[in-house]
Design goal:
The chain is of the alpha+beta class. The chain has one domain: RelE-like (YaeB-like fold, 2-Layer Sandwich), CATH 3.30.2310. The chain has 2 helices and 5 strands, in the order βααββββ. It is globular, with a radius of gyration of 14 Å.
Length: 107
């Protein structure tokens, strides 16, 4: 999945979710929906909103402890996006999606 916002504005970054992140997103959303009959997971909507934010402001997340990764907390669902900014290529590459151990609410 790639943010299409850059096509209309060359100042925006392209945001790319790698395949494992897309798979994890689908699994987590489906698990929530199976456990909570009739309720839709908020995780896909929150990830989509984060992708749009990152296209405009790629440095909004905090620095991770190691390497060049940054992390963005998804407060509604209690998940964290781990991503790398490649400024010369104008790309934000989302590398991981996982629950934040410090937050009890999820999805």
């Amino acid at each position: 999945m790639t943010s299409s916002a850059r096509g209309s504005d060359p100042s925006l970054f392209t945001v790319v979710l790698n395949q494992p992140v897309q798979e994890r997103l689908a699994i987590e959303a489906r698990a929530w929906e199976l456990l909570h009959e009739g309720e839709k997971s908020q995780l896909p909507d929150e990830v989509n909103a984060a992708v749009e934010q990152l296209a405009h402001h790629p440095y909004i997340g905090t620095r991770a402890r190691r390497g060049r990764l940054r992390k963005l907390h998804l407060r509604r669902t209690g998940f964290v996006l781990m991503y790398e900014v490649k400024p010369r290529l104008r790309i934000v590459s989302i590398k991981a999606l996982h629950p934040d151990a410090g937050l009890a609410h999820r999805r």
